[in-house]
Sequence to fold (318 residues):
Amino acid sequence: MNLEFGYVSRKRISLKGRDFLELQDFTPEEVWAILKTTRLLKKRRKVPQKLKGKFAAMIFEKPSTRTRVSFEVAFEELGGRALYLSRNELQLGRGETIADTARVLSRYVDLIMARVYRYETLEELAKHATVPVINGLSDINHPLQTVADLYTIWEKFGKLRGLTVAWIGDGNNVCNSLLIGASKLGVNVIAATPREYMPSKRYIDWALENSSKSGSRIEIIEDPEKAVEDADIVMTDVFVSMGQEEEREKRLQVFYPKYQVNSNLISKAKKKVYFMHPLPAHRGEEVTDDVIDSDYSLVWDQAENRLHTAKALLYLMF
Ligand code: CP
Ligand code: NVA
Fold:
């Protein structure tokens, strides 16, 4: 195996035995180790079968295209086998507790990945599982997405420190995790969100704390045009996340059209600006076709990088 895997400045980084629930629990060096391992794994899809004989259980309380498929392919490309378990097909859906599910799955598999409604479910899983647990999205965060986003930006610009991301729209799970990842690695984030849909206070506080070490600039404002002025990347996400369907009308009234990323908003940004979105997109709501399909859109690379970053994380965890 290439000895460069998992090394940052010649120091070996291992995430063996760790849960991956919250990016704030990881040092900048550890996040860099995932990004650098990603670069190597993306160049060489045929890596040694590090997970040969290993099994993962993937629990999904919500739908998924990218997280499910990228993780399953990542696990299997490394030689293991990942099992898709939808909540309603498990006894969990009939009232078996999270704790009991965690205890039992730990007797069969080597890793649990879960996409859940409430972050507390992940904490409960991790508390009772004897194998590592990975967060595949919760109501408050989406760290796997942030790692892929940071990798995509690094791949495009060849650096991270000093770049500016304008986040437009809902201060949601993806935005919370972005604030953490970016502030750890010296990326500036100017988020323009309606006052009632700002990122969570805990995440803003963490980001400010991180930025005092990394030097990144973190601002939460309301005006999208002001946010994109200095941006290298304009990023958005849906106005109505999974689980918020009942708030749809109310949310659209607040977000649309002011927070839509369209060519008019992009025209207020620098000439060279990129567009990113974790997907799935609601075309015509938070973003228009001409932006998401433009030559400055990175969304397909961003989606592809979910696979390579998941592989890197798994590689460092085992
Ligand atoms: N970006 C993302 O997590 O996509 P899925 O909901 O398709 O997994
Ligand atoms: N904020 C979105 C992200 C989907 C990947 C949601 O939670 O539905």
Observations:
- The pocket of phosphoric acid mono(formamide)ester (ligand 1) is lined by residues 64-67, 137, 145, 278-280 (CB under 6 Å).
- The longest strand covers residues 55-60.
